[in-house]
Amino acid sequence: MSNFDYQQIDDVIHSRIRTAVMAVLVSVEEAEFNFIKEKVNATDGNLSVHIKKLEDAGYLTVKKNFVDRKPVTRYKLTSKGYKAFEKYIANLESIIKGK
Amino acid sequence: MSNFDYQQIDDVIHSRIRTAVMAVLVSVEEAEFNFIKEKVNATDGNLSVHIKKLEDAGYLTVKKNFVDRKPVTRYKLTSKGYKAFEKYIANLESIIKGK
Asked: Which of A38, A89, B19, B82 is deepest in the core (most CB within 10 A)?
């Protein structure tokens, strides 16, 4: 197997917004929608679509509750998400270094 | 500007096959189509499309000539391509590290 094999790169993560969202979530315990949105500089609709894709892959969980009667949505990486991101970085590093 | 800003990631490079092709080309002086194809594990059609996109961005040049009457196509990164790949890696590293 070649070390440049593109199929080794996790397609769920290797999209610009999703890469950025995963990077935000590994850096914090959990994050609200607006926090992520500001960090990755995405629009609401675009971010929602990409978060859904990460959720469908089992890489993050969504918690909805109310704070002062306002709905708050929080996102958190799952252990599967952590592992996938670690593997993604390791694969990308090995591809970039050509090892 | 947030360091997680996804728009900092070069969209031309941040596609699985194109990331792999760029990684192959930075590791060699120049490469033939079949060499790249084997390295990145892509199909002919798929690889052609992605190479064209990199060519259109000015990231690689194509040289066609004949060796023993057989057509040989060689690809080489341009200095623009080198710089773009270096910047891509640097951006991705800073996003991943959240710095």
From this structure: B19
Q: Please report the DSSP string for B65-97 in residue order.
A: EEETTEEEEEEEE-HHHHHHHHHHHHHHHHHHH
Q: What is the pLDDT of residue B99?
A: 56
Return the residue in B1, B16, B22 with the most chain A beta carbons within 10 A, the one to mutate for interface testing.
B16
Q: Where are the domains of chain B?
A: 6-97
Is B57's Cβ below 8 Å from some Cβ in A? Answer: no
Residue A66 distance to chain B (closest CA, Å) = 27
pLDDT in tens, B6-40: 998 999 999 999 999 999 999 898 999 999 999 99
CATH code 2.60.120.10 for A6-97: no
